[in-house]
Backbone:
C-alpha cells in the first residue's frame, strides 16, 4: 500500500461521495482482491464515518488522499458500492479515457447514470460488502479480525442489522463467515447508532446522574448504576452513548434488571483491560469492551466486588519517561544535510532532533532531507531546513497528555524534556505500541 504522497498509484479503489460504512468496508474488501491498488475517497464521508476515521481507521488501514493521485496516470479504476458517474467526484472525468480499465462491484439497481465497466459484478444483496465477501471466501482469502469486523459492520449498517426488506440470505451467510474470521460484535454494536425508546432515554439519564468518578492507580474510572424492575434492551448501546456524551476513558455500568445484575464495561486506555475484569465476575470480552451477567447477587454486592477487582487489576498509568526512546539520535544545527541523511539511514529513523548545547532547537524529517539531497543541497546546514515549531512534555506527563498531543496535533515525534535537557523522544509508533499492547513495525507511522 502506498504511504508516500510522492508515489502516484496506477490503480485506485474508490466509492461514492458521502461514503458510509458499507462503502468503507467494500473498499477494504476490494483491497484484498487488488492489493497493489490505493484506496482513495472521492470526497466527503458521512459524519459517523468521519468520526470513526478520527478515532480508529486512520491507524488501521492505509488511505491515500485524492490530492496525491495523478488522474492521468491511472490505468485501473475499481468502483465499489456505486457505478453512477455523478457520485464519484473527480474520478468521473476518467470515464471514457482510452486505456483505462474500470472494474465495478455494486448492489444498487440500474440507473441512467450508470458507468459501463470492463469487469462488472452486480448482485442484489442488502449490502455491497456481501458481494465482495463472497468473492474473498471463494478465493480462500483470509481476513484479520479488524478487517472482518469492519466488513461485518458494513453489512449490519446497510441491512439495518438484517431487518431491512432488502436483506438476502447471502447477507446472513457473509456475516456468518466474517464472524468465523474474527469479527468483533461488541465493536459492531458500539459503532451502530440506534434510535432510543423513551425507557432507554430514562435509563441513560439515570446512568448520567449516578456516575461517580474515582482514580485508581492513576487512572480515572467511572462507575455508574441503575435499577429497573423489567429488562431494558440495548444496555450496551446506552453505555456507549454515555461514554461518548461524557468523553469517558473507562466506564463500568451496572444495571439491576429483573433477577440479575448486568455489567457493561468499556475502556480506551491500555491500563484497564475490561475483558479480564469482566471475566473475574463471570463474564468476558475484549480489553476494550466486555460484559457480564451476575445472578444471585444484589447490586451492592456486585459493586463491592467490582471495586475490589479494580484495585487489583488496574495497572499503574504510564509516564512519558516509561514510553520514550532513549538515548536520542540528534545533530547540531551546523551539521550538513548529508550527515543527517547518513544518520537516518544508519539508525533507520525518519526524524532527527536538532540540539545545540543540550538545548532543543528543532527537528528535521527524512522527507525534507531526501528532497534536499535530490536537488544536490546535501552540503547545506541542517539549520536551513529544520522545523523550529515543536511541542514537548515533561518526564512525568501522563499517557493521556502524550496521546492528546501526538494525535490532536498530528506530531511525528514528541521530545521529553526536563529542565531544558532532552531525555528522550516518543514517536507515534511508541504511542501505538502502548495503546494496542503489541509491537508494530518500527517507524511505520513516523
Residues:
Amino acid at each position: 500500500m502506498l504511504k508516500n504522497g510522492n508515489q502516484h498509484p496506477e490503480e485506485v479503489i474508490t466509492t461514492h461521495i458521502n461514503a458510509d460504512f458499507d462503502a468503507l468496508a467494500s473498499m477494504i474488501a476490494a483491497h484484498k482482491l487488488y492489493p497493489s491498488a490505493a484506496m482513495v475517497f472521492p470526497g466527503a464521508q458521512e459524519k459517523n464515518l468521519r468520526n470513526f476515521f478520527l478515532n480508529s481507521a486512520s491507524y488501521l488501514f492505509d488511505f491515500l488522499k485524492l490530492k496525491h493521485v495523478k488522474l492521468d496516470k491511472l490505468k485501473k479504476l475499481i468502483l465499489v458500492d456505486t457505478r453512477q458517474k455523478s457520485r464519484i467526484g473527480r474520478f468521473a472525468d476518467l470515464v471514457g479515457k482510452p486505456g483505462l480499465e474500470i472494474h465495478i462491484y455494486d448492489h444498487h439497481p440500474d440507473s441512467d447514470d450508470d458507468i459501463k465497466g470492463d469487469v462488472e459484478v452486480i448482485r442484489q444483496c442488502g449490502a455491497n460488502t456481501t458481494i465482495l465477501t463472497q468473492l474473498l471466501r471463494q478465493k480462500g482469502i483470509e481476513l484479520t479480525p479488524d478487517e472482518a469486523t469492519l466488513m461485518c459492520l458494513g453489512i449490519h449498517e446497510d441491512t439495518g442489522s438484517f431487518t431491512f426488506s432488502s436483506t438476502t440470505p447471502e447477507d446472513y451467510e457473509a456475516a456468518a463467515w466474517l464472524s468465523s474470521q474474527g469479527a468483533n460484535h461488541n465493536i459492531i454494536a458500539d459503532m451502530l447508532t440506534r434510535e432510543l425508546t423513551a425507557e432507554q432515554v430514562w435509563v441513560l439519564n439515570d446512568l448520567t446522574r449516578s456516575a461517580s468518578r474515582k482514580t485508581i492507580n492513576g487512572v480515572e474510572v467511572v462507575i455508574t448504576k441503575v435499577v429497573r424492575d423489567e429488562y431494558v434492551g440495548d444496555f450496551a448501546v446506552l453505555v456507549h452513548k454515555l461514554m461518548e456524551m461524557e468523553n469517558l476513558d473507562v466506564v463500568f455500568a451496572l444495571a439491576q434488571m429483573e433477577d440479575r445484575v448486568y455489567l457493561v464495561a468499556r475502556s480506551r486506555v491500555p491500563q484497564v483491560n475490561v475483558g479480564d475484569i469482566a471475566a473475574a465476575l463471570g463474564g468476558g470480552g475484549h480489553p476494550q469492551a466486555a460484559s457480564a451477567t451476575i445472578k444471585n447477587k444484589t447490586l451492592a454486592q456486585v459493586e463491592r466486588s467490582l471495586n475490589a477487582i479494580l484495585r487489583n487489576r488496574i495497572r499503574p498509568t504510564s509516564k512519558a519517561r516509561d514510553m520514550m526512546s532513549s538515548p536520542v539520535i540528534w545533530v547540531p544545527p551546523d551539521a550538513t544535510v548529508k550527515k543527517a541523511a547518513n544518520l537516518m539511514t544508519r539508525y533507520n529513523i525518519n526524524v532527527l532532533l536538532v540540539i545545540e548545547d543540550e538545548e532543543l532547537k528543532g527537528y528535521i524529517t527524512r522527507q525534507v532531507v531526501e528532497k534536499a539531497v535530490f536537488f544536490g543541497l546535501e552540503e547545506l546546514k541542517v539549520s536551513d531546513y529544520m522545523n523550529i515549531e515543536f511541542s514537548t512534555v515533561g518526564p512525568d506527563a501522563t499517557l493521556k497528555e502524550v496521546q492528546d498531543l501526538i494525535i490532536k496535533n498530528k506530531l511525528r515525534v514528541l521530545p521529553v524534556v526536563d529542565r531544558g535537557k532532552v531525555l528522550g523522544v516518543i514517536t507515534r509508533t511508541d504511542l501505538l505500541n502502548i495503546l494496542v499492547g503489541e509491537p508494530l513495525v518500527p517507524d511505520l507511522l513516523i
